Amino acid sequence: MADARTDAFELEAASIEEFLDLLERRERDPVVAGNESTGPFVRRAVCVTRLFDRRPSDHAFPIITRYVAAAFAYGEDLVSYRITTSNGMEMPSPADDAEKMAKRQQETYEDVRSRVEQRIEELGISSRVPIVEGFLHHATDPRASRGR
Known about the structure:
Elements: E1 2-3, E2 8-12, H1 16-28, H2 30-33, H3 41-44, E3 46-55, E4 63-74, E5 77-89, H4 97-123, E6 131-133, H5 142-146
Parallel strand pairs: 2-5, 3-6
Antiparallel strand pairs: 1-2, 3-4, 4-5
Helix pairs in contact: 1-4
């Protein structure tokens, strides 16, 4: 999606490997890597978080989509990766669906964060590229104001 006011783009990577390759490319980019003052802390950070959307259903229970998302700024652009961990009704106990889906989401979050941390360590950039829990949006993205 292009931002008409800044010509910025949002790219959603198809896999965690592609996401990590783009992060490595950003860090090897002489314009980005050579300029430590490219902006505030958040422009250097990789954001990883757990999110969920709740939608009404025709039944007594809402449909919940749980996912893990990671994002980083690459110049004016936003690179993100998202993996859906569940999508459906989550029944309360005794079915324990909500607890099972939350556990699966947590495990996926830990895996994504671990892989990001590992690549950052391999690149030797852990001192300048923090990993934070949260999600990064362009300020002009209407999703940013919804609180998702």
